[in-house]
Amino acid sequence: MMNDIERATLTITNLENIRKNILQEQAELATERGRVALSAHTGDAKSRKRLDEINIAATKFASEFSSIESAIVEADKNLDAARAAETLAADREKAKQLRDKVKRFLELAETLDDCFADFKSAAMEQKKILDDIHNLGQAAPSAQQYRVFCEIALKTAVQQTPFWSQDFPAMAPNQRKSYRDVCNSWGEMIMRNVNSRLGENKEERAA
Questions:
Q1: What are the tens digits of pLDDT across the range 85-127?
Q2: What is the pTM of this model?
Q3: Distance between alpha carbon 127 and the CA centroid of its chain, in Å?
Q4: Rg of the chain over CA atoms, in angstroms?
Q5: Element of type H or E holding 42
Q6: Using CA atoms in the order 86, 92, 97, 100, what is the torsion angle rounded to 10 degrees?
Q7: Which uninterrupted H or E stretch holds 26?
Q8: What is the Cα–Cα distance from 80 to 122, expressed in whole angstroms?
Q9: What angle do CA 144, 146, 152 make, to 5 degrees?
Q10: Nearest to 83 by CA among 9, 1, 173
C-alpha cells in the first residue's frame, strides 16, 4: 500500500507524462500547420478546412497544457505537504523516544546520587570501624595504608565510567584494585591474628 508521498509522486509522474504527450501533439500540429497554411490562405478549400481544425485543436491543446501545468503545481504542493507531514511524524517519534530517554537519564541521576550517598555512608562507617580495630590493638592496616589502597580502588572504579578524565592517570590492569579485594586481604590477615590469639589455629591443626 502506497503512502502519501508515493501517491503524490505517482500523480506528478502521470501528469508530466500527459504534459509530454500534449507538447508532442502540439509540435506535430505545428508541423502540419506549416504544410497546409499556404494552400489554405491561397484558396484551397480542403486545406482551409484542415487549417481550421488544426487551429481549434491547437487552442484546445494550449488550454489543456495550461490546466496540466496548474495541476502539476498543485501536485507539487501536495508532495511537499506529504513530505512535511512525514518529517513531522518522524520528528514526533524522535521526540517521544527523547522523552523516554530523558526520563531514564534523570532516574539514573537519582541512582548515582543514591550510590554516592551509600558510598559516603559506608566509607565513613568503615573508617570508624578501622579506628575501632586500631583501638583493639590491631595496627595493620594503618590509616595511611587504608587511604592509599582505597584511593586506588576508587580510581579503579571511576576509570571504568564516563567520569574518568585526563586529570586522573591511567591505571594499568595490574594496578587496579577493588574495595572487596583490598579489604578481604586485610580481613584474612587480621582473622589469622584473631584465630591465633583465640587458639583456633592450633585446634584446627590438631584436628
A1: 999 999 999 999 999 999 999 999 999 999 999 999 999 999 9
A2: 0.61
A3: 45
A4: 45
A5: none
A6: -170
A7: helix 4-40
A8: 62
A9: 105
A10: 9
